C-alpha cells in the first residue's frame, strides 16, 4: 500500500515463495489472523502486488512470523517440506505426538505416516490441524486416513479457519467439526484465543468466558502462552464448577477417546480436577480388545479411583469387531478395567466409512452371542442412533415365543423354552380387554396414567 509520504510500497517477504506463482489477480489475501486484508491486483511468478482494503483506522503494524491466508487461491504444496522431513528425525526420538499443520488431503496424512514408519516412529500420536477451507471440506477423508495411526486427534484452528471460511461462518464450521469428531470417536482440541485476554493481560472478557464454556465439548483445550496462563487454567476449572451449580444440570457426562488414544493424558492433576465436579460420568470409546493396553488400563483405573463411573460406547465395525469372540473378549476386558459396557452402535452414515458398516442382523447375532455366555454386566445395549435426531433406538434378539393373557412362553440363550404364568387379572382389566383377546390401554390406579400396551412379538 502506498503511503502519502512515500513512493515506495511496503514489502513483505514469504517463507514459502513457491506459493506466489499459484496466486492470481483478484484473489483475497489476509495477514496476521485477518487483522490486515487486501486484494491481489497483480501477480507474477515471484511477486504479488496487493491493495490493502482492510485495516484498523490509523494503520496496523505487521510483525515477523505472522501468518498469510489465501482463501480464494488453490494452492498445491507438498505435505512435508525438506526441512519438515529433516526435523522428523529429531521428532521421532523425543516427541510423543506429531502435529500436521495445514492438513488438506488424505494423501498428506498418508505421506506423514509413511515417513514416521520409515523412522520406526509409527507409535507416535498424530494431530491434524484443520485451518483451511480445503482441510475442512476434506475432513471426513482426513480423519479416516488418520485412523491408521496409533492415536489421532483433530485441532480446530479457529483463527485461520475464521479467515479462510469467513468469521460469519466460524460458529457453523466449528460446530460441524465437533459433530464429525464425535461421530468418528476422535478427540477434538479447542484452540485459538481461548481466554486470551485473561492469559496475556489478566483481564476478564465476557465473550471469552462464553467461548470457554463451549470448549467443554472438546477433549482438550489449548491455552496460548502468557503471563497469566495459570490463572486461566484456574478460571477454566471455575467455569466447570459454575456449570455444576446450574440447577437443571444434574449430571455431567464426558464422552472421550482419550483413555484409549492418549492414556498418558490422564494424570493425578486431571483426576483431582474432575473429582471436584461429581456427579460426573465418563463414556470411553474402545472398539477392539487390543486397544485396552496396560497404559489404557492404568489410566482407567486412575479415573475409577477418582470415583468416576466409567462406561464404554463401541461401534460395530466390519473386519474389526464383527465377531462374537472378539466382542466378548472386549467386553470382558472392559469389565476387568472397571468399565461398564454401555452401547454397541451401528456405524453411522458418515462419508468414507461405508466399507466398515455391517448389517443389523450381524449386530443382533453378536448380542445373542453375549447374553448368557458371559456376565450380564458385559452385555451392552445394541442401538441405532436414528438419523435426523431420532435418538438411540435399542434392538434386541427375540426371546418372546408367545404372549397371552394367561402366560408367556419365552426362550433362553440356549433356545430352551419356558412358560411364565401371568398374574390373575381383576374385573377392571377384563372389562378393558377386547373380546378378541387384544389389549387396549387402561387407566391405572395411581395418577390416572394409562398402562402400557403389552407387545406381542413372534420369533423363530
Secondary structure layout:
Elements: E1 28-31, E2 36-43, E3 48-54, E4 68-69, H1 82-94, E5 97-100, H2 106-118, E6 125-130, H3 133-137, H4 139-146, E7 152-157, H5 158-165, H6 167-183, E8 188-191, H7 196-201, H8 206-214, E9 220-221, H9 229-244, E10 252-255, H10 258-261, H11 268-275, E11 280-284, H12 294-305, E12 310-315, H13 324-336, E13 340-345, H14 360-370, E14 381-386, E15 391-395, E16 400-403, E17 407-411, E18 417-421, H15 427-431
Parallel strand pairs: 5-6, 6-7, 7-8, 8-9, 10-11, 11-12, 12-13, 13-14
Antiparallel strand pairs: 1-2, 1-4, 2-3, 14-15, 16-17, 17-18
Helix pairs in contact: 2-4, 5-6, 13-14
Quick summary of this structure?
The chain is 32% helix and 19% strand. It has 15 helices and 18 strands.
How does the overall form come out from the CA principal axes?
Answer: elongated
What is the radius of gyration computed over CA atoms, rounded to a whole number of angstroms? 28 Å
Detail the poorly predicted runs.
Answer: 435-460
The secondary structure category is alpha/beta
Per CATH, the superfamily of the domain at 251-396 is Aldolase class I
Distance between the termini: 80 Å
Q: What is the CATH level 1 assignment of the domain at 251-396?
A: Alpha Beta
Treating each run of at least 4 consecutive H or I residues as one helix, how many helices? 15
Which sheet architecture does the biggest sheet show?
A: 6 strands, mixed
Q: What is the helix content?
A: 25-40%
The CATH architecture of the domain at 251-396 is Alpha-Beta Barrel
Strand order of the largest sheet: 10-11-12-13-14-15
How many beta-strand elements?
Answer: 18
Mean pLDDT: 83
CATH topology of the domain at 251-396: TIM Barrel
The share of residues in extended strands comes to 15-25%
Amino acid at each position: 500500500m502506498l503511503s502519502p509520504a512515500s513512493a515506495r510500497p511496503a514489502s513483505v517477504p514469504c517463507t514459502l515463495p513457491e506459493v506466489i506463482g499459484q496466486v492470481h489477480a483478484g484473489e483475497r489475501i489476509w495477514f496476521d489472523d485477518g487483522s490486515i486484508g487486501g486484494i491481489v491486483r497483480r501477480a507474477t511468478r515471484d511477486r504479488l502486488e496487493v491493495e490493502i482494503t482492510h485495516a484498523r483506522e490509523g494503520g496496523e503494524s505487521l510483525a515477523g512470523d505472522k501468518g498469510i491466508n489465501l482463501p480464494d487461491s488453490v494452492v498445491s504444496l507438498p505435505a512435508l517440506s525438506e526441512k519438515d522431513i529433516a526435523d522428523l528425525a529429531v521428532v521421532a526420538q523425543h516427541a510423543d505426538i506429531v502435529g500436521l499443520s495445514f492438513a488438506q488431503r488424505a494423501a498428506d496424512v498418508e505421506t506423514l505416516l509413511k515417513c514416521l514408519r520409515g523412522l520406526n516412529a509409527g507409535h507416535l500420536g498424530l494431530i491434524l490441524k484443520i485451518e483451511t477451507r480445503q482441510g475442512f471440506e476434506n475432513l471426513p477423508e482426513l480423519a479416516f486416513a488418520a485412523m491408521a495411526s496409533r492415536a489421532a486427534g483433530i485441532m480446530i484452528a479457529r483463527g485461520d479457519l475464521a479467515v479462510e471460511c469467513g468469521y460469519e461462518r466460524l460458529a457453523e464450521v466449528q460446530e460441524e467439526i465437533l459433530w464429525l469428531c464425535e461421530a468418528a470417536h476422535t478427540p477434538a482440541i479447542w484452540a485459538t484465543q481461548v481466554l486470551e485476554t485473561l492469559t496475556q493481560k489478566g483481564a476478564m472478557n465476557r465473550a471469552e468466558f462464553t467461548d470457554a464454556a463451549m470448549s467443554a465439548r472438546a477433549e482438550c483445550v489449548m491455552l496460548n502462552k502468557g503471563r497469566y496462563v495459570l490463572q486461566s487454567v484456574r478460571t477454566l476449572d471455575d467455569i466447570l464448577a459454575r456449570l455444576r451449580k446450574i440447577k437443571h444440570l444434574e449430571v455431567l457426562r464426558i464422552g472421550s477417546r482419550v483413555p484409549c488414544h492418549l492414556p498418558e493424558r490422564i494424570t493425578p492433576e486431571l483426576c483431582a480436577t474432575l473429582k471436584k465436579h461429581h456427579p460426573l460420568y465418563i463414556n470411553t470409546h474402545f472398539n477392539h480388545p487390543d486397544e485396552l493396553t496396560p497404559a489404557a488400563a492404568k489410566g482407567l483405573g486412575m479415573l475409577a479411583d477418582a470415583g468416576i463411573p466409567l462406561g464404554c460406547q463401541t461401534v460395530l465395525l466390519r473386519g474389526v469387531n464383527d465377531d462374537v469372540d472378539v466382542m466378548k473378549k472386549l467386553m470382558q476386558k472392559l469389565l476387568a478395567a472397571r468399565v461398564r459396557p454401555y452401547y454397541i452402535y451401528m456405524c453411522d452414515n458418515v462419508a468414507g466409512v461405508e466399507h466398515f458398516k455391517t448389517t443389523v442382523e450381524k449386530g443382533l447375532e453378536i448380542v445373542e452371542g453375549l447374553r448368557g455366555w458371559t456376565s450380564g454386566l458385559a452385555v451392552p445395549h445394541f442401538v441405532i442412533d436414528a438419523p435426523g435426531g431420532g435418538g438411540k433406538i435399542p434392538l434386541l434378539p427375540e426371546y418372546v415365543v408367545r404372549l397371552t393373557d394367561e402366560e408367556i412362553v419365552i426362550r433362553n440363550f440356549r433356545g430352551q423354552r419356558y412358560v411364565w404364568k401371568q398374574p390373575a387379572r381383576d374385573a377392571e382389566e377384563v372389562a378393558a380387554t377386547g373380546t378378541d383377546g387384544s389389549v387396549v390401554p387402561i387407566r391405572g390406579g395411581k395418577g390416572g396414567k394409562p398402562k402400557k400396551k403389552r407387545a406381542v412379538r413372534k420369533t423363530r
